[in-house]
Amino acid sequence: MKHGEKDFKKKSYQKQIEKLKETGIKLEVNHKRLQNEIKQKNNLLERIFSNTHILIAYLDENFNFIQVNNTYANYNKKSINYYTGKNYFALYPDKEYKKIFNRVLKTGKSYIIFGEKFHYDRNMEKLNDSYWDWSLHPVFDTDKKVDGMILTLLDVTERVKAQQELINTKEQLLQSKRLSDLGLLAAAVAHELRNPLSVIQAALYNIERKKGKAPIQPQLYTIEKKIREGDQIITNLLTYAKIKIPDFKKADILTLLDESIGMVKLIFPIENIQINKIISDDFIRFIEIDPVQIKKVLDNILLNSFQSIKKRKGVIEIHAKTVNNHMVLTIVDNGEGIKKADLSRVFEPFFTRKSRGTGLGLSISMEIISLHNGKITIDSKLSKGTTIVIELPYAK
C-alpha cells in the first residue's frame, strides 16, 4: 500500500470516529432531555395525584393497593405507606362491591355511580350517613388485558343535602300555592258537586214517580254514574291540595294501566268505546314510581279520553315501549280534540272548556310526572282526537 493511500484511509477513519462521537453526544443530549421531560411530567402527575380533593387508589388485578394519594390516606387517618400491598377487601369486606370490582376486571368496562349512600366507618369511629360519587376504571397492559384499576371517591354529602333542601323548599312553595288556591277550590267544589247531586235528586224523583210503571235501570245507571263523577271531582281536588314527594316503589305499570281501564269502564259502562293496548316486544313493565300517583295520572288521562268521545264509535289506543332507559306510554283517542289556542293552557290548574269538570286532571298529572323526573306532552286536533305521551325514567 502506498504512503498516500494510508494517509487517506487514516483521515477517513478519523472523520468516521468524529461523526460517531458527535452522534453519541447528540444521543446523550436527547436522552437527558427526554429524561428531564419524563421527570417533569411525572412530577406534574404526582402533584395532581397528591393535591386533588378526590380520593384516589391504584389497585392491581388482585385488588391489592399499589398506591393511594394523600387525600385517600388522610381521610381514613392513615399514612400512604399503610395501604401498600394490602388487599382492598381485607380492609373493606363487602360482597356486593366485590362483584362490581370483578365485573370491571372481567369486562374491562368502567363502573360509575353518583350520590350513593354510605355508612362509612374510619378507625371504628361511626359517622353519620354520607353520600359519594365513586368510580372504578380499568387499567390495561400492552396486550389490552386489565392488570389494575383506579378507584376514585368524592364526598358529595353537602351537594345531596342541598338537593334535598331544594326539593323540600319546592314542596313547601307548591303547598303554599295550593293553600292560596283554597278559595278557588271551595268554589269549584260547590259548583261541580251541585250538578251531579241535582241529577241524582231528579233521578230519585223519577224512580219514585214511576214506581211499578216503568223500568228503573236507566235511572239507576244515571245515579251510579253521577256518584262516580262526584267522587272523581272530590278525589281530584284532594289530590291537588296535597301532592307530595313520590314514595318510590317497584311497580308493574301494565297492572296499574289495567286497573285504570277497569275504573273508567265502571264510570262509562254502556259507552261504545274500544280500548287497544299495543305493547312492544322490548317493553320493560317494572318501574320505580309512586304507584298511587301514577295510577292517578292514568285515571285522569283515560277519563279525559272517554269524555271527549261523543256520539260515535270511540277508539283509544295505548302504546307502551322502552326507549333509552325510559318507559314511554302513548295514549291516542279519536275524540273531539282540543282547539289549538287552548293547547298551551291545558296543564294550567282550573282551566277547562268542559261544561263540567274542575280543570285539575292534567294539572295534577303534569305535577306528578315532573316529581318523577319525567315528561308529559300533548298534541291534539279539533274533531280528530288527542295524543298524550308520558315518559318516565325506569329508576328514580
Offer a few descriptive terms.
5-stranded mixed β-sheet; 4 domains; 396 residues; Helix Hairpins; alpha+beta; Beta-Lactamase; 50% helix; 14 strands
What can be said about this structure in brief?
With 396 residues, the chain is of the alpha+beta class.
Mind explaining what this structure looks like?
The structure is a single chain. The chain has 396 residues and is α+β, with helices and mostly antiparallel strands. The protein has eleven helices and 14 strands. The protein has four domains: 51 residues; 103 residues, PAS domain (Beta-Lactamase); 82 residues, Helix Hairpins, CATH 1.10.287; 150 residues, Heat Shock Protein 90 (2-Layer Sandwich). Strand 6 and strand 7 form a beta hairpin. The protein is elongated and about 135 Å long. It starts with a helix and ends with a strand. The model has no long low-confidence stretch (mean pLDDT 79).
Give the helix proportion (percent range). 40-55%
Beta fraction: 15-25%
Q: For the terminal residues, how far apart are their CA atoms?
A: 95 Å
User: What is the CATH T-level topology of the largest domain?
Assistant: Heat Shock Protein 90
Number of domains: 4
How many beta-strand segments?
Answer: 14
- Radius of gyration from CA coordinates: 36 Å
Kindly report the name of the CATH homologous superfamily of the largest domain.
Histidine kinase-like ATPase, C-terminal domain
Major sheet summary line: 5 strands, antiparallel
CATH architectural grouping of the largest domain: 2-Layer Sandwich
- Return the structural class: alpha+beta
- Tally of separate helices: 11
Topology as a string of helices (H) and strands (E): HEEHHHHEEEEEHHHEHEEHEEHEE
Please list the strands of the largest sheet in the order they lie side by side.
Answer: 2-1-7-6-3
Shape: elongated
